[in-house]
Amino acid sequence: xxxxxxxxxxxxxxxxxLHSPHKASILSAVLPGAxxxxxxxxxxxxxxxxxFAGSGYAFYTNYVALQETNDRFREMYAKGKVPNPQExxxxxxxxxxxxxxxxxxxxxxxxxIIDATVDAHFYKFDINQSLxxxxxxxxxxxxxxxxxxLGKR
Length: 153
Fold this sequence. Notes:
The protein is mainly alpha-helical and 153 residues long.
């Protein structure tokens, strides 16, 4: 005897199985934070955008300061003067700080994609109070035992 599921049952099965890690990754790659919204982890989006804002600010301010310093050096070279070693070291530090800001920006972008993908993989994973870990000696001959409960008690 064949059992054909009703349309109601099919819709509920399809809605549960539609949560895709691939879709979360694509959404995060196209619009940062969208994968977190897709996974219903809304609280992560402000953290992501805060990281983008901070690293973008660090990149931009160091970029502007580096451009101003390079312009000042060009004027000095045009006048036949040479910047002192401290000014050169300061310019090099601005360049390093600018590069670090850019690397943090790219790193946050990559990490938010990874986060969305991992969260999507664990979307249906049940995390509740019945997950526990306990160390209990069971007998005098047994020194330590490890019990892990993953289901309902």
